[in-house]
Amino acid sequence: MWVWQGAIVTGVDFSPVAITEAKKLSHETGFPAEFIEADVCDLPGRLSGKFDIAVNYFGVLPWIPNLEKWAREIARTLKRGGFFYLADCHPVALSMEVTGDAMIPQPVSAYFGDGTPARYESSGTYAAPEAKTHHNVTYQWQHSMQEIIGSIIEA
């Protein structure tokens, strides 16, 4: 991790629970970091300064309705010569699912989204499917590879 090499780290998440857990983990490990509760598409006024590196890690993209705004915020926060690191699965994986006794993923939704989010309702989490949860409806957007890369290039 870059923090082990002396990086000054700032994390952003829209979830107050995630921010609380990140602060707790930062304290427990002794690695200092600042955490900001905010929508990554609405950072002006919440996040100032410029950064050498911006990181988007697995699972962020389906939560973002407006990739153009997301990419502009990334570009705005990067120093000249900085870089953006994006790690995620290929978006076609979001349109596939293994169901029932099948061993091979089958298409369950369109690869090319129409801008309308898919509505999902389920309890638990991906890490703990049996966990008791309360707010069980989520909305996710399907973005094609062209939309993702195109918005980054445009920004």
What are the main properties of this structure?
155 residues, alpha/beta, globular, single chain, 23% helix, two-stranded parallel ribbon, 24% strand, 3 helices, 8 strands
Briefly characterize the structure.
The chain is of the alpha/beta class. It is 23% helix and 24% strand.
Report the β-strand fraction as a percent range: 15-25%
Helix content: 10-25%
For the record, the count of structural domains works out to 1
Q: What is the H/E order?
A: EHEEHEEEEEH
Kindly, what is the distance between the CA atoms of the first and last residues, rounded to a whole number of angstroms?
Answer: 27 Å
Assign the structural class, choosing from mainly alpha, mainly beta, alpha/beta, alpha+beta, or little secondary structure: alpha/beta
Strand order of the largest sheet: 1-2
- Uncertain stretches: none
- Annotation field: number of helices: 3
| Spatial shape | globular
User: Over the alpha carbons, how many angstroms does the gyration radius reach?
Assistant: 17 Å
The major sheet is characterized as: 2 strands, parallel
